[in-house]
Amino acid sequence: MEPLEPGKLPTHLAIIMDGNGRWAQQRMLKRIVGHQRGAETIKMVVEQASLLGIKYLTLFAFSSENWSRPAMEVKALMALLKKYIRQETARMMRKNIRYNVIGNRSDLPDDVNATLEDAIRETSGNTGMVLTLALSYGGRQEISMAASRLARDVAAGKIKPDDITMELFSGYLDTGGLPDPDFLIRTSGEMRISNFLLWQLAYTELYFTETYWPDFTINEFHKALADFQSRERRFGKTSDQLLNRGSLLNA
Q: Which residues are bridge partners to 99 per DSSP?
C-alpha cells in the first residue's frame, strides 16, 4: 500500500461511488449484484477512513436523478440501503461513527426513513468520524431550497439582505455545520461531478479512477489518498506565497 502521512490526510473526504451496474453487466450478472458488492466496498472504506482519522466522509449513495431508473432496480436499492443501515449500525457504535443524511428524504420510502431515523438517533452521541449519506440528493435542488429558506428568513425580518455572506448561505445548505470537502474521489472512469455538492466542491481536489466501485480495494483507496497528499493546495495563492508563509512560521 502507498505510504501515507497522517497529518496530510483530508479532513473531509467525499466519494461518488460509481460503476456497480457496469461491473455486474461485464460479468453477466444482475445489476443488483454489483450494488451488493459495492456495499462491501463501502464497509471497507468507512472502516479505513475511520482508522486513518478522517473526520468526515460523505458518500453519494442515491441521487435525485436515480429515481428515473427501472422501478425494480430502485426497489432493490432501497431494500439494500435499509439492510446496510440495520447491519452496520452496531459497527458504527463500536467505531464511534455518527450517521448523517443529506438530500430530499421526503422522497424516500417510509420504512427506509424510519431505519435512517433509528440509526441517526442511536449514533447521535458518537464523537468520531461523521458518515454522511447523500440520498435522493441533487446539488442544484439543494442550492435552490437553501435560497428559498434564506429568502423566507429575509422576508420575516430575521436577516437583513446586507448581512448575507457566503458563510451565512452555506449554513442553509444540507451540509450546514460540515466543512467543505478537501478531496473528492470518483470511480468508474467518469470525469464529472454529476450534480453532487456543487457549492461545496468549489476548492476541492478531484481524483478520478477507471476502477469500478466494487473493485475499489484498500490499495486503490490508499493510492488515491497518496495522490491527494502529493498536491499543493494554493486556494488562489502562488507557490512562492505558500513557501514564504512556511518560512515565516519556521523562523
A: 131
